[in-house]
C-alpha cells in the first residue's frame, strides 16, 4: 500500500519537461490544417482502392497457384474479385490457393494488406490512436525545434489583441505559443493556428514546456495583477535575456512588475481612461491613436535600423516622421539633446504607412 502511494506521488512530481511527447497530448496542442469530411473520405477510398489493386495484382501474378471452381485460369477480374472477398474476410471459397507458394503469399502478404484495408475503411478507433501518436510525435519535434518565439501568457481580450498585433506585424502564427488554463480560450487560439499549452503560466514547468527558456519575447496578459507579477517573476528567472512585456490594471502595481523583471509595463486602466477623456473633447485624436495601433490599416508605428547615410545627421531631417531614437535599449524622445545626432547602432521609432 505504501509503495503504491509513493509511486503515485513520484509520478505527480515528475516534471512536465521530462515527459515524452505522447504523454503531453492534451497539454500541448500543435495546430494543423483542418481537412473537410469529403477530402477525408476521398483519401480513405483512394487508399482502399490502392490496397485492393495491389492485392489483385499479386494474385494475378501468382494465378497459376490458385484454383477456380470452373477449372479455368484466373483473369484479372477474377483476381480483383478474389482480392476483394479476401481483404474483406468474406471468403466464398470459389477461388482458393492450392500451391505452397500461393498459400505462403496469401498468408505473408495478404494478412498486412487485410489489416490495412480494414483499418482504412472501418478503423475509427485506430484513427484516434494514430492521431494521438501523431500529435505526440509533432509535439516532440516542435519542442526540439522551437527557438526565438513569443510566449503569450493569457489569451483573454488583451492576449488575443496582442497576438493580432504580432501577426499584423508580420509575425508567423507558428512563432507564437499561448499559455492559459481556460480550455475555451485555448480552442480559440488553436483555431487561429497558434501552438497552445494548457497550464498555469506562473508555474516554471508549464513555461518551460512552452519553451520560454528559448523565447525571444514574453507577453504577460493575465486577468489579475498579482498573477501577472508572479508570471513575470517566473518567466524572468527562466529566460533572463528574453524581452518581457506585461499588462496590468492598476498603476500602483507598475513598479512591482518592473522589479519582477518586466522590460515594459502597460497600464490598461489608465490608458483606457485617458482615451475616454480625450474622446469627449478631441475624438479625432482617439481615432489617430487607434489608427497608429492598427498595423494593417492607415498609419502604424514601427522601428527600423539606421541607414549608413543617416549616421551623424538629425532625425528631424529624415523623410520619415521619427518619434524617437532607441539607443542601447533606451528610448530617447525627440527634443532630447542626445537624440540630435544619430549613431550607428541606433534604431529609429517612426510612423509608416500600413502598406509600406
UniProtKB/TrEMBL annotation:
InterPro entries named in the record: K_chnl_dom (IPR013099), NAD(P)-bd_dom_sf (IPR036291), RCK_N (IPR003148), Trk_Ktr_HKT_K-transport (IPR050721)
Compartment annotation: Cell membrane
Record domain RCK N-terminal: where: 147-267
Transmembrane segments: 41-61, 73-92, 104-129
Keyword field: Ion channel, Ion transport, Membrane, Transmembrane, Transmembrane helix, Transport
GO CC annotation: plasma membrane
UniProt topology in membrane: Multi-pass membrane protein
Main localization category: membrane
Keyword Ion transport tagged: yes
GO BP, one annotated term: potassium ion transport
Highest taxon listed in the record's lineage: Bacteria
Record's protein name: Potassium channel family protein
Amino acid at each position: 500500500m505504501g509503495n503504491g502511494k509513493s509511486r503515485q506521488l513520484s509520478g505527480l512530481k515528475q516534471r512536465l519537461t521530462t515527459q515524452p511527447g505522447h504523454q503531453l497530448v492534451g497539454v500541448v496542442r500543435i495546430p494543423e490544417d483542418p481537412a473537410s469530411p469529403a477530402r477525408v473520405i476521398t483519401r480513405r477510398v483512394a487508399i482502399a482502392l490502392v490496397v485492393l489493386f495491389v492485392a489483385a495484382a499479386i494474385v494475378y501474378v501468382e494465378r497459376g497457384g490458385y484454383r477456380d471452381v470452373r477449372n479455368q485460369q484466373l483473369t484479372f477480374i477474377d483476381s480483383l474479385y478474389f482480392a476483394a472477398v479476401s481483404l474483406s474476410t468474406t471468403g466464398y471459397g470459389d477461388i482458393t490457393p492450392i500451391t505452397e507458394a500461393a498459400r505462403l503469399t496469401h498468408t505473408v502478404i495478404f494478412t498486412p494488406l487485410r489489416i490495412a484495408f480494414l483499418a482504412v475503411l472501418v478503423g475509427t478507433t485506430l484513427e484516434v490512436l494514430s492521431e494521438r501518436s501523431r500529435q505526440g510525435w509533432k509535439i516532440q519535434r516542435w519542442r526540439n525545434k522551437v527557438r526565438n518565439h513569443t510566449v503569450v501568457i493569457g489569451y483573454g481580450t488583451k492576449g488575443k489583441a496582442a497576438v493580432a498585433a504580432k501577426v499584423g506585424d508580420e509575425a508567423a502564427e507558428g512563432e507564437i505559443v499561448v499559455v492559459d488554463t481556460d480550455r475555451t480560450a485555448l480552442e480559440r487560439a488553436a483555431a487561429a493556428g497558434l501552438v497552445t499549452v494548457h497550464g498555469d503560466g506562473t508555474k516554471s514547468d508549464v513555461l518551460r514546456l512552452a519553451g520560454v527558456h528559448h523565447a525571444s519575447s514574453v507577453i504577460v496578459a493575465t486577468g489579475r495583477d498579482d498573477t501577472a507579477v508572479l508570471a513575470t517573476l517566473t518567466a524572468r528567472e527562466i529566460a533572463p535575456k528574453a524581452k518581457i512585456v506585461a499588462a496590468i490594471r492598476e498603476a500602483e502595481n507598475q513598479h512591482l512588475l518592473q522589479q519582477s523583471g518586466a522590460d515594459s509595463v502597460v497600464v490598461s486602466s489608465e490608458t483606457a481612461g485617458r482615451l475616454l477623456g480625450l474622446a469627449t473633447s478631441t475624438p479625432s485624436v482617439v481615432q489617430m491613436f487607434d489608427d497608429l495601433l492598427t498595423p494593417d490599416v492607415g498609419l502604424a508605428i514601427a522601428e527600423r535600423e539606421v541607414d549608413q547615410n543617416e549616421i551623424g545627421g538629425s532625425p528631424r531631417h529624415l523623410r520619415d516622421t521619427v518619434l524617437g531614437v532607441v539607443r542601447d535599449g533606451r528610448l530617447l524622445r525627440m527634443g532630447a539633446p542626445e537624440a540630435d545626432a544619430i549613431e550607428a547602432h541606433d534604431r529609429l521609432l517612426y510612423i509608416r504607412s500600413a502598406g509600406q
